[in-house]
């Protein structure tokens, strides 16, 4: 866990005082109060904090959030990286690259399959092997534009309890239905329940004996008096359940002016509306790093009905165990990885992440010369990693 070079040292905090210094740097970097950042780190746990030192000085830090992410209908263990921050007076001198490179190597030594983060500066993370993974979009619609209709499913209140909401989420196997779905860290569930902006409410769809989905939201009124309902989390077992969710939200139109939510560029809530009235207000992309190639490829799901081998030649200058040739054998929707093979698809580690999540196909990556592959290998890889455009609703 400790890593050093001639200039920098990477480690967890040795004492609460070191954690406080890291919190102060992060607070300045993300324009929040020191108290807010300290509460965040204390709640998450100091064992999830990493710091970069130079001599006796702390120059910055980051946090690690062990959780999971769904790809190909299977949960892949994932460590999220957040709050990456460097003190202003030493930025641009290599501390951030050392910090992130050390974090990647620590995760690799622990056998973590993949890591995901939201980049403030994309180039930094590309230098340590992260590639674009999927989208995070803000959507918005006026409640007056929602059709008035009765929900076909009943609604019932849900307790604002992280464990019960997690159970409701998993009952729908919601994460398995779209690439990038997050198996949230407990801290993220706590943040949903206590968002700090307005009160939250949660309702189930169907019945407690036969749940078909749920929605959790908060309501706010701005200084101009406009009211907004923000969907914080939701799940639905069918298109009919999504229609009932929208019908339920439309019943708020007498008091709520607008509804907003986060999702993907290809968004199931927006697509379920009878007319294209929702507005895409903003869009950003998260990044993923394949940390342990063999485990990541084995945990991911693949299309059923294929019994094939894909021969990879992976380039990774940071994690030596990822460097070289591997054979991905797929049977019955699952993969197995062994060293060796012919290297028909030569792929840098950052491009492998983009292929792994399904954001871009192997054929597109080959056309752009981001990978080097035979036409047969590119076609096979496209089929193996195909799926809906990956997205997340959570920012961390």
Topology:
Layout: E1 3-4, E2 9-11, H1 16-30, H2 34-44, E3 49-54, E4 57-71, E5 74-86, H3 95-109, E6 114-117, H4 122-127, E7 131-142, E8 155-157, H5 162-171, E9 182-183, H6 186-193, E10 200-206, E11 211-221, E12 227-236, H7 239-250, E13 258-263, H8 268-272, E14 279-290, H9 293-299, E15 308-315, E16 324-331, E17 334-339, E18 345-348, H10 349-357, H11 362-367, E19 372-373, H12 375-384
Parallel strand pairs: 5-6, 12-13, 15-18
Antiparallel strand pairs: 1-2, 2-3, 3-4, 4-5, 4-9, 6-14, 7-13, 7-14, 8-10, 10-11, 11-12, 15-16, 16-17, 18-19
What does this structure look like?
The chain is of the alpha+beta class. Helix content is 29%, strand content 34%. It has helices spanning 16-30, 34-44, 95-109, 122-127, 162-171, 186-193, 239-250, 268-272, 293-299, 349-357, 362-367, 375-384, and strands at residues 3-4, 9-11, 49-54, 57-71, 74-86, 114-117, 131-142, 155-157, 182-183, 200-206, 211-221, 227-236, 258-263, 279-290, 308-315, 324-331, 334-339, 345-348, 372-373. Strands 1, 2, 3, 4, 5, 6, 7, 8, 9, 10, 11, 12, 13 and 14 form a 14-stranded mixed beta sheet that branches. A five-stranded mixed beta sheet has the order 17-16-15-18-19. A hairpin with an 8-residue loop joins β15 (308-315) and β16 (324-331). α1 packs across α2 (34-44). It is globular and about 65 Å long. The two termini are 23 Å apart.
């Amino acid at each position: 866990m400790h890593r050093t070079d001639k200039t920098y040292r990477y480690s967890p905090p040795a004492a609460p005082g070191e954690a406080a210094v890291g919190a102060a740097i992060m607070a300045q970097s993300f324009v929040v109060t020191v108290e807010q950042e300290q509460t965040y780190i204390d709640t998450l746990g100091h064992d999830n904090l990493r710091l970069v030192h130079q001599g006796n000085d702390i120059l910055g830090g980051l946090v690690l959030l062990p959780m999971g992410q769904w790809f190909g209908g299977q949960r892949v263990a994932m460590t999220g990286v957040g709050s990456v921050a460097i003190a202003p007076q030493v930025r641009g001198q290599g501390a951030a690259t050392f910090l992130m490179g050390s974090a990647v190597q620590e995760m690799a030594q622990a056998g973590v399959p993949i890591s995901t983060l939201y980049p403030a500066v994309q180039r930094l993370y590309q230098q340590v092997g992260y590639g674009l993974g999927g989208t995070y979009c803000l959507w918005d619609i006026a409640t007056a534009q929602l059709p008035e209709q009765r929900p076909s499913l009943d609604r019932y209140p849900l307790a604002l309890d992280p464990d019960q909401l997690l159970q409701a989420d998993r009952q729908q196997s919601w994460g398995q239905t779209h690439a990038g779905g997050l198996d949230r860290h407990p801290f993220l569930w706590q943040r949903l329940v206590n968002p700090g902006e307005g009160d939250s409410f949660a309702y189930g769809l169907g019945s407690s004996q036969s749940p078909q989905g749920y929605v959790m939201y908060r309501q706010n009124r701005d200084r101009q008096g406009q009211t907004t309902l923000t969907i914080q989390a939701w799940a639905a077992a069918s298109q009919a359940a999504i229609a009932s969710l929208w019908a339920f939200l439309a019943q708020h139109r007498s008091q709520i002016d607008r509804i907003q939510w986060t999702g993907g560029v290809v968004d199931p809530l927006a697509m379920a509306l009878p007319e294209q009235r929702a507005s895409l207000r903003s869009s950003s992309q998260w990044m993923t790093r394949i940390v342990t190639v063999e485990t990541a490829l084995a945990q991911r799901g693949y299309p059923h009905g294929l019994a094939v081998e894909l021969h990879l030649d992976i380039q990774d200058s940071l994690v030596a165990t990822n460097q070289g040739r591997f054979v991905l054998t797929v049977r019955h929707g699952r993969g197995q990885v062994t060293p060796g093979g012919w290297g028909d698809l030569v792929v840098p580690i950052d491009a492998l992440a983009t292929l792994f999540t399904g954001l871009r196909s192997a054929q597109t990556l080959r056309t752009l010369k981001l990978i080097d592959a035979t036409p047969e290998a590119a076609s096979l890889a496209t089929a193996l990693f195909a799926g809906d455009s990956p997205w997340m609703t959570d920012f961390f």
